[in-house]
Amino acid sequence: ATLRFLDSQPVGAKKQVDQVQIQAYSPRIVEHSWYAWWEKEGFFTANNKHTKGKTFTIVIPPPNVTGTLHLGHALTDSIEDTIVRWKRMSGFEALWVPGTDHAGIATQTVVEKKLMREKGLTRHDLGREKFLEEVHAFARDKKSTILNQVRRLGSSVDWTRERFTMDDDLQLAVKEAFCQMYEKGLIYRNTRLVNWCCHLNTALSDIEVDYIDVPGRTMISVPGHKDQVEFGCLSSFAYPLDEGEGEIVVATTRIETMLGDTAVAVHPNDPRYKHLHGKFLKHPVNGRKIPIITDGILVDMNFGTGAVKITPAHDPNDFATGQRHNLEFINVFDDNGLLNDNGTGPFAGMKRFECRVKIIEFLEEKGLFRGKQDNEMRLGLCSRSKDVIEPMLKPQWWVNCKDMGADAVNVVRDGSLKIIPKDHEKTWFNWMENIRDWCISRQLWWGHRIPAYYIQIEGESAEASGLPGRNSEQESRWVVGRTDEEAMARAQAKFPGKKVTLTQDDDVLDTWFSSGLFPFSSFKWPRETDDLKAFFPTQLLETGHDILFFWVARMVMMSRCLMGVLPFKEVFLHAMVRDAHGRKMSKSLGNVIDPISVIEGITLDGLHKSLQGGNLDPKEIKKAEEGQKADFPDGIEECGTDALRFALVAYTSQGRDVNLDVKRVVGYRHWCNKL
Predict the structure, then answer these.
(1) Residue 654, pLDDT above cutoff 60
(2) How sure is the predictor about 310, in pLDDT bands with cuts at 50, 70 and 90?
(3) Could you give the percent of the chain with pLDDT greater than 70?
(4) Start-to-end CA span in the chain (Å)
(5) 159: how many CB neighbours lie within 10 A of its CB?
(6) 98: left (phi over 0), alpha (psi -120 to 50) or beta
(7) Which of 360, 367, 362, 363 is closest to 253 using CA atoms?
(8) Beta carbons within 8 Å of 371's beta carbon, 6+ residues apart
(9) Helices (H), 91-211
(10) pTM of the model
(11) Is the pLDDT of residue 615 over 80?
(12) Whether residue 340 has pLDDT greater than 80
């Protein structure tokens, strides 16, 4: 009867507490109606013309619009809401900015799988414009769900300032940031080795690559390959001398790359090969003459045979060696990981790991294969698709991070920026002191399209102009512009008197580029708004320690570069939420829990249904259902928002990891009953 009465009241009306009659604590009744009233009354709306004299600003770590919030997000919101309400009660003009992130790779991947599953279509079947309409519709739906979850968690965010990283204002900020950083010489175009995901067809930054340790010969499943692939194996084969008798034996963990070998290096002081300096070997597949070069930097003459095959277009160490010796760079893979026709002979068109097997068979037939042995190694995997990363030579946009990284180290060392807990400073220094340039191009359709344009001159041949995005492009042909008109003016200044056409880069920016601007793009920078003047810089950044470099470092570097100040004074890093067994939250384990399921309660059947409609394949769904049945045989009891938040905040004293047992949340519901 009480619930029926509460449901009958106008949304946003103040709760008539005197009409509530309950014998025992009921979270549903106790929490009913309050949030809608708070929101309607504007209690969380900050005033940029404030008279309090002191502000407290914090931005929410914007969750990805790929799905719904999980308990990790609930922990973030609970901690931040506790801090913001405390500051508000302490007399500060407190602003908590809510928002969501477009999550380029993750969202595009989810929508592509959804399209294939439901309609049997690829994004190329739809075309860029229609595909982006599908992604926007998906993002709107997920964003709506996420924002409602934030409300159910009782988060006192300012809804009048809610942001999405693909909003027009934030797109303007991204263009301005790119152009300013380009004009400062911090963003540049260069053809270099990138981390390439053949499954997603895009380049990745170093921190988007996960590494696994392979102890020795191990069979591993790879996306796009029916059979498992062997890793942790060193294969040896011989290159015959081009003239006369003799051979040099080399070893590699990626024998398929031998098709792109353009040299074999030996140590200049190795007596075994002194007589071969300057001579040539003959490639057994394509007959290419391969020079024997000397290199004391790369080669350890005490390791293996003391001879190293050099594939400059497919290995970071070999790339540097190729530059030192002016070697030819031969790319033997296409974007999908298939062998192209650059001297690949009978292997053209094969998948790279199928070719691995076939090349060994070929070398055995030629009498050149010398065997296999275990080799402990680290294997790089795409953090999204789990495909094996392929180093590929690609023209991309890069950010020079050297000076910004050094500055980020200094502001922590001198105390300008405090990282709490302090033991995370070691991680910060390790990352920032060893930072490499940041590849910001992504070969996707969903995201902020790069405001760069390739110049082509009317009447010139395709060979003369080169193709943008291909290794034939000319770096000098690129101009950047905030608008098409600005780009055209710069192109005409480069080629006065010529009739030129511009083609905008098809690529989009790394998601973390736009996320790095969030503390000030949220206030409509580059415009000098009242909000920007009143609420930036912010005071605190609170988030999980897992994105210290992904996000926190980007914000520090980009704010210092573009705004001249730190985006916040303190960084508070909370623990990571794991399940009761200490396992990382994973959809395939069935331990990813929607906070609403804890707040309202849910049956085991309801938990099973929550696995449907996502990207799990039938085998993973079955595994997840078994995990749910083991952990929640009777489902999850209704706990309410207060009990959930109290439990999460109480857990934060554990340090780096929170092993969350839902039964403990039920215990806090009983505590609420006593209260």
Answers:
(1) no
(2) very high
(3) 98
(4) 23
(5) 14
(6) beta
(7) 360
(8) 235, 236
(9) 104-119, 123-126, 128-152, 168-183
(10) 0.91
(11) no
(12) yes
Sign of CA dihedral 290, 295, 299, 301: positive
- The residue whose two tokens read 């600005």 is 486
Residue 153 has pLDDT above 80, yes or no: yes
* Contact assessment for residue 189 and residue 396, using Cβ atoms and an 8 Å cutoff: yes
Can you state the angle between helices 402-413 and 425-433, rounded to 10 degrees? 150
Cα 97 to Cα 164: distance, rounded to the nearest angstrom:
11
| Cβ atoms of residues 142 and 66 within 8 Å | yes
Q: CB within 8 A of 17, min separation 6: which ones?
A: none
Query: Rounded to an integer, what distance in angstroms lies between the CA atom of residue 395 and that of residue 505?
Result: 12
Q: Using H for helix, E for strand and C for coil, what is the string for 368-433?
A: CEEEEEECCEEEEEECCCCCECEEEEEEEEEECCHHHHHHHHHHHHCCCCEEECHHHHHHHHHHHH
Q: Spell out a b/e string for 430-466, using b for 16 or more CB atoms within 10 Å of the CB, else e.
A: ebbeebebbbbbbbbbbbbbbbbbbbbeeeeeeeebb
Phi, psi (5° rounding) for residue 554? -60, -45
Q: Are 77 and 156 in contact (CB under 8 A)?
A: no
Three-state DSSP at 260 gives helix
Structure tokens at 643: 């009990």
Q: Phi, psi (5° rounding) for residue 155?
A: -70, 125
Asked whether the bond before 240 is cis by omega within 30 degrees of 0, the reply is no
pLDDT confidence tier of residue 139, bands split at 50, 70 and 90: very high
Mean pLDDT check: name the lowest of 137-151, 296-310, 555-569, 581-595. Answer: 581-595
DSSP 583: P
Average pLDDT over residues 461-479: 90
User: Does residue 17 contact residue 6 with C-beta atoms inside 8 Å?
Assistant: no
Report pLDDT for 462: 84
Query: How distant, in Å, are the alpha carbons of 193, 208, 310, 669 from that of 316?
Result: 7, 17, 10, 55
Amino acid in position 612:
Q
Residue 47 phi, psi dihedral angles, 5° rounding: -105, 115
> Tokens representing 87?
């500051």
**Banded model confidence at residue 657, pLDDT cuts 50, 70, 90:** confident
- Once rounded to an integer, what is the mean pLDDT over residues 295-324? 94
Instruction: Report the DSSP pairing between strands 441-442 and 508-509.
Output: antiparallel
pLDDT attached to residue 283: 97
Q: For the chain, give the mean pLDDT.
A: 93
Location of structure tokens 């249904």 = 609
Q: Which two tokens stand for residue 481?
A: 């512009």
Q: Which pLDDT score is estimated for 505?
A: 96
DSSP secondary-structure letter at 285? T
